[in-house]
Amino acid sequence: xxxxxxxxxxxxxEDIEAVVRVLKSDYLTQGPNVQEFEEAxxxxxxxxxxxxxxxxxxxxxxxxxxxxxKEGDKIITTPITFVASxxxxxxxxxxxxxxxxxxxxYLLDIDKVRExxxxxxxxxxxxxxxxxxxxxxxxxxxxxxxxxxxxxWIIEDACHAPGGYFxxxxxxxxxxxxxxxxxLAIFSFHPxxxxxxxxxxxxxxxxxxxxxxxxxxxxxxxxxxxxxxxxNHGLWYYEMQELGYNYRLTDFxxxxxxxxxxxxxxxxxxxxxxxxxxxxxxxxKPYIIRQxxxxxxxxxxxxxxxxxxxxxxxxxxRENNIFAQVHYIPIHLxxxxxxxxxxxxxxxxSINYYTHCLSLPIYPTLTKEEQAFxxxxxDMFYE
Length: 383
Description:
alpha/beta; 2 domains
């Protein structure tokens, strides 16, 4: 049996042709495909503006800069996510405060967030970064109400959730990243994500002011709107007005992302089918502590199960060429964050989750035979 990873990209002939066309064109970077990808992605998500950047981490960093995070600002996020969701705050000099997860959803627990806000003097916290972990959408309507109460901004980390959505209190479908509740949202185009561009990221928003600021920060702080420049020496002139970064996406990456976007819905449906098979087969198994569940609006970037004896199962699967993964090591246990006073006794629900969680293979090209092999191998381990 060949190796079965927890996730992998699918590159079609159409994807290859799209990239080759760019390689044969006049532009390798800052070409027309970037803007076309941005416009297509904004339409797909249902937001006003999209800004393509070099990766999801860059997207998070630019968001904190655009929102004015500075030294001393406290930002709340979840420990069960990739480290970038927290590191972006540190890049800007802010302080990360972790709140525990809801053990039923694995998402940032809004009640724990409220407890933090109530216990601190007004103005202590500046923002919240909820994460659509594994593809399960956060109810951002509820978080928006909380944020408004305490005058906070929201960055939605939707890296796992393009195509995901939740139903709001009025019965309206709210796409992840559509900007109706979060000030900014970010996505990743890493190879294991729904839309693969090698690397790459996207920021989405409905705020025109933030949109223009992000475009400047993406390109060295150079003012992108000629009418707002202080001087004009001629057609060659460019003007750096603030300290920015080179966080641009290349044109051939944008072409790949744009091509992948065209079949994003088909990939999402396949992921849902794989998840449904896991749910059916594992239902009632004594070795299962908790399954992800079939949730409306879940985009199933990951299929997470809590197992008894997770560590030995993980090793057994690897021995059989099944490369399941643990998502994630709680960020507050990383040596870097321990220096700020975090330790194993904090956030017990996140620690308990980490002790048992395992992400099983789920990606559009996973065959029925491969999934059956994964399931049978797990059964064999517990026999």
